[in-house]
Structures are given as C-alpha cells and as structure tokens.
Design a protein that fits this description.
The protein has 17 helices and 23 strands.
Length: 512
C-alpha cells in the first residue's frame, strides 16, 4: 500500500478533513469545524477543520520556504512533475469522481467529466516551458541587446467554489507552480476532501514539500490570506459579492487579483432554430449538475410567441422524462443539491417567482426520491413569462430553475442580455449565419456560443466573463494564466569596447 493510500484511509477513518501543509496531513487545532453532508441522504458524513490564523501562517511559511528552490528548478523538470500528476489523476479517476459525488451530489459521469476538463489544464501546464520563453532583440542600440523574461511572483493563493471541487483548483495551481510559484489552496468547506487527495497525489508525483498546500476553512482563512503581505496574488471563483470583496481587499493589500464572479446566462432561441436540438441542449445546460454551474443557462429568451409556446411545450415534455436520484447511479440525469441550506434557498426563489407573477409550468419542489427522502433533492423547475425585474430573472439562483423570457425580435433579446449586470456566458440557437455573426460580434458577454449551450473554453483558451462577472484584467487558465502568475522583466545590456573611455551623454538615450 502506498503512503498516499494510507493517509487517505486514515482521513476516512477519522471522519475528519484536515489540512495539507508542507507535504503532510496536518490536523486542525483551532477547535472550529464545519459539517460535510452526503447530499443524497442528507446525513452528516464527516467534519472539516477550519484553519486558524496560525495554521494559515504555517502554510504561507511553508510555501515561502519552498519558493527559492522551486523558482530555480528548470521548467522542464517542473513539467516532469506535472506529467506524473496527470497520470496519477487518471489512475485515480474513479476514486476522485466518487469523492466529488459523495460530497457535492452530482452524477458520477458528471464528476468524471469535471475531472477530465481539469486534467486538460494540467496537460496545458506541461507546455509552460514554451510559454515562459521571453523575447530577445539584438542591437537595439549600438552594441546594446535587450530581452524580456517572465519571472514568478512568489507565494500565490487560490480560493475555489463547491460546484467544481477539482476542476477549478486545476485551473489555477498547476500553471501557477509551473511558472515557478508556490501555492496555497483554500477549497470550499462544503466538499473539501478531493483537495486533500490532490495534495497527496501531487506529493506522490514528486512535487517538493511546501510547493502546494491546502488550507480548509471559512472567512477567517480567506481574510488571513488576503491580509498577509507574503501572498503576492489571489485567484478566486465564486459569487459576485464575494468576488468584489476579495478583489477590493486584495488590491488594498497590494496583491494581484483575478476574481471571477456570478452569472445569469441567457440563451436566445430564434424562430429558425432546430428546436428539438435546442431543447436537448437547454435541458443539459439548465439542469445538468442541478444547475449548480456558473455557465449554466437559467434563462432562455424565445423570439416570437410561436417559438416560445413550442419551446415551453417541448421543455415540459422533456422534463417529464428526467430521472432524478443519487449521483452514484449513472442512469440518473440529475442528483441532489449540495446542502439542505442551499435547497431551501433555491426553493425560496421558486416561491418568489410564483409571487411575482411568473407562470410556473413545472414545479420541482415536491419531488421525493424513494429511499432518499431526506436527501437535498429538487426537481427540474420551469417558469414561463419571466420578466426583467423579477428576482428569478435578476439573481443567480444556482439551482435547477429555468425561466422562459419572451421577446419579439433578436435585437430586443440582445438588449435584455446587454442590460443585465452579469456578462459571463450566452448562446444563440439559429440556422442563420448572418444572425449568428451579428450576435457574436455585438453581444456584451465574455463567452459566447452558437448552437453551443455551454461555451466553456478549452484549456488552451482563457475563461472569463465581462461586467460584474469578472474583477481584474486577466481571465482564468489558458494564456492569461501565464501572464497572471508571472511578472515581465526587461533587461537591456551593453558591454563597452575594451579600454575605450566614453564621454558622458546628457541627452535621453535613443536607438539611433
């Protein structure tokens, strides 16, 4: 049995999720814990230790101590570690997927898909030696050469959400450490176990102690990371209010910050769209993972009443065929929501939608799963005649609630999207190339799909929205990640000819 497996079994036996600092599992000492539930049963499955300021300090100190040697490690050798990590993630795919499903609730195949998208980012990070090459110019002036290079920042941190407990961390830390930084991850306290396993696998892959650390906790841990001057940069994915807080607080403390916030993604369905395929796409985009995705589509804008009536009818028929149950059964289309508290929050939005006058076509509030009556299940919910100004229109619900909005033409539909405070993702369903081109050119949203409901960029492009969906100048992963986790330094040098005494020059230097 490997040391990694032994550590994992101890963690399971103790029913406690602790910290991973300097290559070791470190029990929490603050005396504060959070509860982790099995969403399918509603049962308390384990507890997670919440870090104190002292434990955050220990993680930062470990990362700071590891930085000089890791910074000086050749990028090709760093890449060898990432290649081994990729192999270990693939080898442990079943175990990782089960951990995600046990704590998040999503269906196993969905967990596996999340892991695969994360692994794609590890693969891209292996390419960093090419991306880190600088630029060189010879003889920019008389016997003067100039070049630029990309240098690591130092200790950097990532604060990640519950909905993608392995993919989003893999957006961040592999590229960060490939660029020569050391990293501290603060995962969601709702499903933190997979982050600890990831730390163990990174160590098994040969990552030196202290290069990657995991601190579990709540706002105490977040604020400690934001306040500490040794932390040079912070990446965040989560809700807009917290993204804005992290951006402002991190900037005030001199940090580089990228903070990805919330979304309210609209899909436009044009009268000429392939309606059957559009409905199939919308079902997955609205209800996959229980709607707990920042790229989910909770609003569909149907152009024309005839389109809207047909769309609602087909959506209602498709919802009736959905299978809802525990995520451990891959025959299910949708699992539970992550916690009972979140379930009640989403139900409250359904109540509010009815109160505000939207037409409730399908009500998922009464769903009950046999043998899992205490699980956090909410059935697929569908509203028609949703209008701007309603809470279910404006707020990010993060649940399986889809609203149909009616517009009379494409420009009216685009105006609705442009007026919304969020600009994360959007898509259009049409057979008209001219309409698609106009939409992609003019819509004020960061990620756009044409007949693609979840336009999530692949690993060698970057992910990020516009407006209040992103705080900061650089997007996540892809080429922007290299720029975020490095500083450009430009060096200009000249070696005077031997023995020649040169006169002082008082004019500004030029290349002439």
């Amino acid at each position: 049995m490997t040391k990694t497996a032994e550590l994992s079994e101890v963690s399971q036996a103790e029913k406690s999720v602790n910290h991973f600092i300097n290559g070791k599992i470190v029990p929490g000492s603050s005396g504060r814990h959070g509860n982790i539930y099995n969403p399918a049963s509603g049962e308390l499955s384990r507890k997670v230790a919440f870090a104190s300021d002292q434990e955050v300090d220990a993680a930062i100190a470990a990362a700071e101590a590891a930085f000089p040697a890791w910074r000086d490690t050749p990028p090709a050798r760093r890449a060898q570690v990432m290649f081994r990590l990729k192999e270990l993630l693939e080898k442990n795919a079943e175990k990782i997927s089960r951990l995600i499903t046990d704590e998040h609730g999503k269906v196993l195949n969905d967990s596996l898909g999340e892991l695969q998208r994360g692994i794609e980012n590890v693969e891209y990070a292996c390419y960093a030696p090419e991306l880190l090459k600088g630029e060189h110019s010879k003889n920019v002036g008389p016997a003067i050469d100039s070049w630029s290079e990309f240098q690591p920042l130092g200790v950097v941190a990532g604060i990640t959400p519950f909905n993608f407990p392995i993919m989003v961390p893999l957006w961040m830390w592999p590229m960060a450490v490939m660029c020569g930084n050391t990293f501290i991850l603060k995962p969601s306290e709702r499903d933190p176990s997979v982050a600890i396993l990831m730390g163990e696998l990174a160590r098994e892959a040969g990552l030196p102690d202290g290069v990657f650390n995991v601190i579990n906790g709540d706002k105490v841990a977040v604020d400690a990371l934001l306040a500490d001057k040794r932390v040079q940069a912070v990446s965040f994915v989560g809700s807009t209010p917290i993204a804005e807080y992290i951006y402002k607080t991190g900037n005030a403390n001199g940090k580089r910050v990228q903070a990805l916030g919330g979304a309210k993604n609209h899909a436009i369905v044009m009268p000429d769209a392939d309606l059957d395929n559009a409905v199939s796409a919308m079902m997955g985009a609205a209800y996959g993972s229980g709607g707990q995705r920042c790229m989910a589509v909770p609003l569909v804008v149907a152009v024309g009443d005839e389109t809207a009536d047909a769309l609602v009818r087909k959506l209602k028929d498709s919802i009736a065929k959905m299978k809802i149950g525990p995520g451990t059964d891959n025959s299910n289309d949708m699992g539970p929501l992550v916690t009972g508290q979140h379930l009640e929050k989403v139900k409250g939005y359904v109540d509010q939608g009815v109160k505000e006058g939207a037409e409730l076509v399908v009500d998922g509030r009464g769903v009950s799963v046999s043998g899992h009556e205490k699980g956090f299940f909410l059935g697929a919910t569908l509203f028609d005649h949703v209008k701007p100004g309603m809470k279910i229109y404006s707020d990010e619900i993060f649940g399986p609630v889809l609203g149909v909005v009616r517009a009379q033409n494409m420009q009216e539909a685009m105006d609705l999207i442009d007026a919304h405070e969020y600009g994360n993702g959007t898509c259009i369903f049409t057979r008209d190339g001219e309409a698609a081109r106009y939409f992609t050119d003019n819509i004020k949203v960061g990620m756009v799909g044409v007949n693609v409901p979840l336009p999530v960029p692949v690993a060698h492009h970057s992910f990020g929205g516009w407006k209040r969906s992103l705080f900061g100048d650089l997007h996540a992963y892809g080429p922007d990640a290299v720029r975020f986790y490095t500083r450009r330094k430009t060096i200009t040098q000249r070696w005077p000819s031997g023995g020649v005494r040169e006169k002082a020059v008082f004019t500004f230097p030029s290349g002439s």
